[in-house]
Amino acid sequence: MKGINITLCIALLGLISGILLCPFLNFSLLTQFTVFLSCFFNFLSLHYIFKRKHIYSVFTAFAAFLLFVSIGVLLVTLSDPLLKKSHYTKTLAFEQPQTILLEIDKKLKPGFFDSKYVARVLQIQNKPASGKLIVNIEKDSTKPASDLRVGQYILTKTVAQTIAPPRNPFQFDYKAYLEQRGIFAAITVSKQELLQLPYSKNSPQSFADHLRASLNAKLDRFTMHPDNRAVLNALVLGQRQDLSTDLQNDYANAGVIHILAVSGLHVGILMLIVQFLLKPLGNYRRSRILKTLIVLLVIWGFALITGFSPSVLRAATMFTFIQVGLFFNQRKAGFNALIASAFVLLAIKPRLLFEVGFQLSYAAVFAILWLYPKFEKLGLPKNKLLQYYWKIILVSLAAQIGVLPLSLFYFHQFPGVFLIANCVVLPFLGFILIYGLVLLTAAALNLLPEVAVECYDLILTWLNTFIKGLASLDIFLIENIYFSFPLVILSYLLIFSAENFSRRFSFKNISLLLLVLIGFPITLLFSEFTQRQPKFYILHQYQTSLFSHQNEQLEFTYYTESDREPPQQLLNQFKTHQQVTAVQTAELKHFYQIKEQTIFRIDSSAVFEISKLEPDFIVLTQSPKVNLDRVTERYPNTVYIADGSNYKSYVARWEATCTKKKIPFHNTYEKGFYKIE
Questions:
Q1: Which of 74, 81, 335, 662 is deepest in the core (most CB within 10 A)?
Q2: Cα 138–144–146 angle (5° rounding)?
Q3: Could you give the number of structural domains in the chain?
Q4: pLDDT value of position 238
Q5: Which residues form the DUF4131 domain (predicted)?
Q6: Do 162 and 39 belong to one domain?
């Protein structure tokens, strides 16, 4: 691709490689810094030598690549909040209540029983501390938790809790998700246990939060459907906390969930509209400078209003580089802006690379920049209206191709109506976005007529009804798709090789395409072969027992109590991560055999003394009234497991007994499921 800055590509690839490599390295910070200095001086030396000879050397490029790899490793290490001596994990006692001073940093989607926030730790027991944690505030009808604002200081005395790992296989790992964002604990308090201090921190985020609260207060004078108000907040203000689960599912199943997350799409539409409005200024140098400054001001003003959410920051950074590239008439401004913005964002916050939103947004934009011009060359209708819709179809198709492998990997579903939904919604999104911005501006100035709100409410009602209708077409929604990470790599190789083949028919290109296609069945067969090893799972279910056994034919048997069925969500999780051939249920048994290992289940009958029995694992279920000292004397060389059907007090007593005798004990309440292979 001519015009793309090769130096930027090398820098970005090196940085990404370093970020990916860092978790596998065990080097100290001093060692990493020494490696960085070595790479730096090595690059300078080679660059100086070959520059004097006026030649380009692959050795210089490789030295630059290694330099940015070392930078990536170093940045990931330095961004680790646990390195700070003041981090709360080093001073917070998780077993006892302590006085904690916090600053509200971000509002999260509320739960059924509580409101949720991310907060910064300022002090613990009147001593300075740092780090972020989750604050769960129990809902109180007399004093709603929504009173808390970003930047608000709060004081409480409570017990902090660690984040629980996934309770069952293939569940979303909320603990790992939070740790990637520097959050390692949570507290749960009632409003009575919370003291809101009269002072708060002034910051762009707190200003944006107060502005959004003020605008919503202005709109409270008008009648709007709750779902429509939630869509307005999501589309214009970047706040998705009030969206109902059903509404989000409808947008996801219709393939247009991206319009509810303020991101590159919204910022791009806004930039295009502002550029169109500024066309009368002409194309002189001074007017170009003025237009560039106005566009950047609008982009970052919008980012401020939305509270500098990660998706908006990504988009604002990327479009800033695009706008600057257009000002200098740079060729391939889009690609270079994409590369430069990704480099800047990863250099500032390297762990962004592991966020799904970051991956999807850059995959979509790259695909649009790369594939859309090629699709456009295939021909456009002469009618301008048809041409407009055809371009929307091509853009949607290019973006969907770019994100499809990642979407299948993370979400395991494909919305077949995405093209229809995007063709209807996207042409009007710019109008809906601008209408919403004008509506909020008029409300802020107390100039908003009621009829304008009624019209907007009606438009959003039509939009939500249309999306709900498309989402109800279950036949077009393909769910529970098995898609592993090797298939993601192969899918992108297929896209690149197919594009290469379509551009130039040659033996080399067709050979590459065929090799990639052959790779799919080979990968599926290999993953099936690796999954065929028999496994037995002691799953965690509240107040009941649930076991799962997978045999060599990838047939799953779920053992449950006689009057219960395994949760459908759990079955779907197994299907999306394993190549399941058959599923059946059976009643719980007392003995299970997997390879040469014996599993013995002790239930409420408390029968455990069985002659000649030497189990490898004992599963305690249904709170049996047994003296575990006697059981461990009878079976000393056994792993003990307690599932979710037991009383927590019983489990705590059993765990203390096993700990005292140094016998392995697994508590599914704390550690989640147990797998036996």
A1: 335
A2: 95
A3: 5
A4: 78
A5: 34-194
A6: no
